Amino acid sequence: MAKNLIGKKPTVVFDFDNTLFDAMQLKFLFRAIAQANGFSDEQSRAFYSAARNEQDGIIAITLARYVDEVRRRCQVEGRNIDEIATGAVVGEIQKKGAGLLLSGARELLEFCQQKKLNYYLLSLGVRDWQLEKMRWVKIDKIFSDKNTVFTVKENGGKAEALRALFGADFTGKNTVLFNDRADESAELLLAFNDLVVFLRRDTRDERSSGEKVMANLRADYEDRIVIADGLLELLKIFKKYVS
Ligand SMILES: [Mg+2]
Q1: What is the pTM of this model?
Q2: Cα–ligand 1 centroid distance for 21 (angstroms)
Q3: How far from chain centre, in Å, is Cα 129?
């Protein structure tokens, strides 16, 4: 485990989607828009994939963009989108917004504030859309322009953003990243030799949470990775390290 953190006051970087914010649940809610318009579960997934990227490697998904995709698919079938049913689901999503902060996120952020750690948000996605989600879960006062960095580049965007924050010679020294994706974490651990990652494993994310993926990550980065299924568990471990 992360011995070099013991007794330190590390800088903390939080990934946003699916680390602090329940992006997985939001994805399911998006699909309900397609389903309310008579599309199957499979179609609703395909629409998400279609709406997710503007072009290869550039994240573009927003609620409006998903609705547009459903509207377009309705037109392909020679009908109009059901504005009332769609509006009802969109309303549900907005109402649900505040509940999309992941369990333990509030406690984790409060702990960082109490300990007066420097903390940052690393947000992958369209700026305005990311800001809207931040407002939903009321972390828009905790993260401002000073400590938030946005990127839309799916591959390598986070490494670039970390260098933009901390300088081209950043090695990850005395820095902890809270993240969810195993593949992305592996890339960042490789790019930054001193970085420590606390990984929130989400078993709903089939791409990124398998036993083998976790075992490989542990084997490759024994001293620099901590893995748990929830933020509260990660916080408990984090508290043992931070002075
Ligand atoms: Mg994430």
Answers
A1: 0.91
A2: 9
A3: 13
